[in-house]
Amino acid sequence: MKTKILLTMSALVLMGCSVSQDMASTKDEIPKFHAALDAEKFDDIITNATADLNPATNDGTFRKILEAIHKKLGKFKSSTPVGWNDNATTGGHFVTIAVKSIYERGAADENFVFRLQDKSAKLAGYHINSAAMMIN
Predict the structure, then answer these.
(1) Could you give the CA distance from residue 61 to residue 49 in angstroms, rounded to a whole number?
(2) What is the DSSP string of the chain?
(3) pTM beyond cutoff 0.85
(4) Radius of gyration over alpha carbons of the chain, in Å?
(5) How many domains does one find in the chain?
(6) How many C-beta atoms lie closer than 10 Å to residue 62's C-beta?
């Protein structure tokens, strides 16, 4: 029983270290995304994303979404993280970060999905929910 408890505690400690490393890998990615969005460098966002975005990028849909976000919401002002998920599966290692963002013409709830590989994070998914974007 003692061994089982020690193994469980060791696993929890190691998982905690992994999560903090994973979050550190993603910490600069959301500001980079918003800076590229403000600078209208939509192709840079797409080029630096993973193949997970390919269906939306191959037909130009993702670029059109980025253009619409920039056109309708304007310049990015700030964001506050509201949640995250660190998930390692046989399909890959992903970190999802939810943020509440403020743009010059309204607010948005954004979810960023990053694929972690070799201690780097690349955009694998992006979702936005914004009433302001719909009415502007």
Answers:
(1) 14
(2) -HHHHHHHHHHHHHHHHHHHHHHHHHTTHHHHHHHHHHTT-HHHHHHTS-GGGHHHHHTTHHHHHHHHHHHHH-SEEEEEEEEEEEEEETTEEEEEEEEEEEETTEEEEEEEEEEEETTEEEEEEEEEE-HHHHH-
(3) no
(4) 17
(5) 1
(6) 20
Condensed to tens digits (0 to 9), the pLDDT of residues 37-85 reads 999 999 999 999 998 887 667 788 999 999 999 999 999 999 999 999 9
**51-58 CB contacts, 8 Å cutoff, 24+ apart:** 52/113, 52/115, 52/124, 52/125, 53/123, 53/124, 53/125, 53/126
Domain containing residue 34: CATH number? 3.10.450.50
Structural domain including 110 reads 2-135
Encoded amino acid at 109, one letter: D
